[in-house]
Amino acid sequence: LNMKKLVAISILLLICGLAKAQFSGGPGTSADHPYFISSVTDLALLATNVNNGTPYSGYFFKQTTDLDLNVAPYNTTPGWPCIGNDTHVFSGTYDGNGHKITNLFINNTTLTWGVGLFCQLNGATIKNLGLESVNITSSKDYVGGLVGYVSGGAISNSYSTGSVTGTGTAANVGGLVGSLTAGGTI
Question: How far apart (Å, rounded) are the C-alpha atoms in residues 117 and 50?
């Protein structure tokens, strides 16, 4: 194929949604071949993709370094957008690989419920991840440092330090997880 045809095919794939922006590497197909999260930009791309309807069910992510979210636009209101939202959930596997994320700031009143680094999980696994200096305030329900709402998922070898405040009618606020249903485990 000549260069013009390659460009035309690439544009068509992007328009059709068949080609997705990539992370810092990796195919994401297994624990041995994950997508690499090596920057705040990679983490934000994960949030954008999940929030736009890609749950990543069956896909794997591995954090390769410590990340500091004390950067614009995530360090001013409303702060971090959460990975997932009221409609779309993360369903993949996120391995923090022993690394941490610091200075997670959220002052969010737009989500109906589920506020945290991850809004909600359904069938997802999060492991080996530390959150430090969390500062989350929400007037909604199900507010947690790591995850707001877990329905069918597993969290292991992870922690969160800092301040988490939720003032919704049902509240359900926790330092690590806001609410854990019968299908979830920590």
Answer: 12
